[in-house]
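Appendix B.2, paired examples.
Example (i):
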Amino acid sequence: MAEVLGSAAALLSRTSPDLPVVLIRPHVLRRRAQGVVAAFPGRVLYAVKCNDDERVLRALHEGGIRAFDVASIGEVRRIRALFGTDVEIAFMHPVKPAAAVAEAYHRHGVRRFALDHVSELEKIVAVTGGARDLELVVRLAVANDGALLALSGKFGAEPEEAVALLRRARPHVRRLGLTFHVGSQCLDPGAFARAIHLAGEVAAAAGGIEHLDVGGGFPARYVGDEPPFEAFVAVVREAVGHGIGAVDLACEPGRLLVADGVSVLVRVEQRRGRRLYLNDGIYGSLAELKWLGPRFPLARVRPEGIDRRAELGYDLFGPTCDSVDSMPGPHWLPADVAAGDWIEVGMAGAYTRTLATRFNGLGEARVVEVADEPWYLVDPAPPVTTEMAAA
């Protein structure tokens, strides 16, 4: 069994790490999963691409996650190896190699596949041998106006094309559905209402569907002004009730489930005024500090405890020789931060280690479990009560 430490400060009181340290808090991940599963009126699929660390996956499973959204045959194999047939796998990448579809269907029992083009439909039908137990889900193109990271440029069928795909897929399926993605870190619950309304129009024109997957995009609460998950659930309930009728619902949260269960401990290698040069950066665990910007909670950590003073805004730079490896601020920290100090980056569970590379021979990190209640939580999810679980 892996050693569990009390906190980042406890780690530093025992050792001076040479590498960045990823701190996983399984109890936070379990609690968050319990809350999301209890709140959503349908199936919750975890988006494996967001964080595929085995400790993270097991904690989510212990918290009640029994379905996984995968994007590759590698992720299919990983989930089956960890959980066997205890879980459902949905292969939701709209463009898949034929060999991956065949292996997923014939060897791993995957039945749900996403698509957004007629060639993908033909591929799935061909490699599954004209199977009649497929659950095909057409990805619909929707606006990403309310998201910090738009995902609308690569995938998604336009409404008329989606109608044609649904009609063409109908003879080959056991269940037919629609899905969409409103964009990552969506801050507008109304985006889901608009997407569901469009999905309802497409479904009606195609003769109906059995399944609606409202995708991901539910925000983690980095700064506290992001709408809570419950606000999105209320909008989804109302929109489905008024716009699409009786369908089985699913969602695919990634960031929402894992962001607050992981933090990253990084060391300041050099200070130049308001510039801090760190031993990790965008090619390691901190890519989102560039793509989402300076919204991550930071604190200095010493063996004696956490220093959360936010006195000066800094620009951060990673350890590689690439000038792109920068994280413009202001990232708020104590005014007297110096070389050798350790900084804990909170809310770092999403798209951190999964995006890490070995560029410049860097990118390694130590991974440990810690048992403390994170200092950075905006809204720690309460333990699920019997009444919540039954609701």
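Example (ii):
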Amino acid sequence: MSEKKKVVVVAGTRPEVIKMSSVYMELKNSETLEPVFLSTGQHREMLAQAFGAFDLAPDHDLRLMQPGQDLTGLTARVLQAVGDYLKEHQPAAVLVQGDTTSVLASAMAAFYQGIPVGHVEAGLRTYNMYSPWPEEMNRRLVSPLCRWHFLPTETSQSNLLSERIPADACHVTGNTVIDSLLWMRGKVNSEEDRTKGVAERLKVPDSFRTNFLEEVGKRWILVTAHRRESHGGGFDDICHALRGLVEAHPDVGILYPVHLNPAVRKPVMEQLGDNERIALVEPAGYEDFVWLMNRCYFALSDSGGVQEEAPSLGKPVLVMRETTERPEGVVAGTCLLIGTNPERILAEAKVLLEDANEYQRRSQLKNPYGDGKAAERIRTVLESDL
């Protein structure tokens, strides 16, 4: 039997690890391909946690994160380090996922080496170069460099076709995050109750744990907010809305895993740290985050991943952004784009908290982002083309 062809799977941030783990595990089953997990280390603190959730570890770690890193320096370091790695190892293909600095620089490095690139979760667009920033620019620059575009939806395919990407390079696979989510939900559900462990790992205050996590039927909202475009006034608005939300609904709690970025952590801790029904907790590992999504009443979030994942668990999402590159969820009704205006946040949260029929309707809508077989489809394409 001929030697397997190496496929380098690149990840630099926690979401990339989550969305590429299912691809890596699927390629492990291939008789013709051998995956190599390459970590750029763009977000060092959260990577080991994400790999560990899937019982994986990177095959090679470039460890490129630096304190206070800016986009210019990080881009240059990834481009050089990944380029050196690819030049030495000469794999048959490189797979990148999403829209981070690691994605753009790794795709460029592979292109410079003449190595074909596959883009997982390709074709997402807002067509506003500054929202989200710099992700919209990253994914638009990556597309012309790629041989394979693995698209989560028909909408993302239409975006690329309008940009004159060849139709035979476009493959609608669904989103790999659903593969990973369903795999992780099975793992979490097979274990005994995780409440105590989650509370300890995330440092959930005892009063919130007792009153909400351990009380069956108690409603609490899962919040994630960290995007650059909300830094400053946007976070002040979000904090104002969250305080107003618990004041207007005395039976409701909020659990908010706060991002490590000081631009997020400082205003959130200062403005929300004194309310016993708002639990400001440590960033959650993927296993614990899936558990939180499965237990919450609904999600208030600016995260792209939450827009994709929570609907598969029957949880509506209020998206605290002005634009989204994931319009399919908005069209399907699983997500609602509401921005960061406090009055709008309060009004839309009120609908879900006070209108049981509307909550039930939105909880039962079909998730447009996939059926859990995206990685299998990616493997099939690569086996055929390499």
